[in-house]
Write a structure and sequence with these properties.
Shape: globular
Keywords: Repeat
GO molecular function: zinc ion binding
Protein name: NHL repeat containing protein
Pfam family, one: NHL
Distance between the termini: 34 Å
Organism: Adineta steineri
Oligomer: single chain
Length: 348
Amino acid sequence: VSVNRPKFSPCATWNANATTFANSTTIGTNPGVVFVDRNNTIYVTDRTSYRVQVWQNGQNNVTRTVSGGLNDPIGLFILNNGDIYVDNGVANYQINKWMINSTNSTVVTYLSGGHCYGLFIDINQTLYCSLKINQVLKISLNSTGNMTQLAAGNSTPGNTTYLLNWPRGIFVDTNLDLYVADGGNNRIQKFSYGQLNGITIAGSRTTGTFDLNGPSDVVLDADGYLFIVDQNTNRVIGSGPYGYRCLVGCSQQTGSTSSQLNQPYSMSFDSQGNIYVTDKNNARVQMFNLATNPNSCNIVSTQTPLLTSNNPSSSSTLTSSKSTSAPSITSSLIISSTQLSSTSPSIS
């Protein structure tokens, strides 16, 4: 898969203060999805000017603009060969594809459900689209029939195991399990391959995780741990062998300073583990540098139920008030019960 999935220490930290990678001059006043490929080429959907902006190999200036026929694009995915897949659903009911050196697009498939808030292409070349109409569809790119299949949800909003409510960011791992940021239900749902009944692995009062408020994106690292953009609390949350913790935007206060976000929508890792976030209402893309990624940690838990270390998606918990240290301590992480609470999980 072309997404970066870095390997992190359980106590890796990111700089609280971000640098602004792009602003409204290049990405308009309503940025959508940010995608960083393995060459550190950065792509952002510009919903204002109906285009995709590209920065080759992390350069400071835009090196390519993909446009023509788009209408309010949001979802975005890039293959290892440089092919660009873009949501074009709001008025044109399509997913479009631009080959690496092409100035014209081709239609991948037609959809009747409006926006693809999230796009993902798995290791089998199956494309997934999370639709406004409360479902995730998939289509094989190896097939000539362009037949879509249901991957999760249906057209009815709901909070049962087989329903979704405003699904947005999606991720498919190498086991072909589907992860959905189920924004209207304030949860992350996991659908095992071939299953239409999901399980809640984060949010919605799930034991050992944060309460979420309008999650808009979910990404997995090399070990399968979750990283979540929690839009309505203006932060990014991460999981690990010792539980969940806030990574950036942890004041939860709306703002425009370098340490604040305002309705973040999407995130992507570069190959070094830095986090890029589309900061929607501030009309910018923020980059939070990976500050520390030590080989060993000192972990302190304060009577907080945590996830088991061998399965980041497990609902099993442990409670500990003891400090455990590795042979050589280079960093520390304290997880408290106050970190595991948030404001009301209702979505606006």
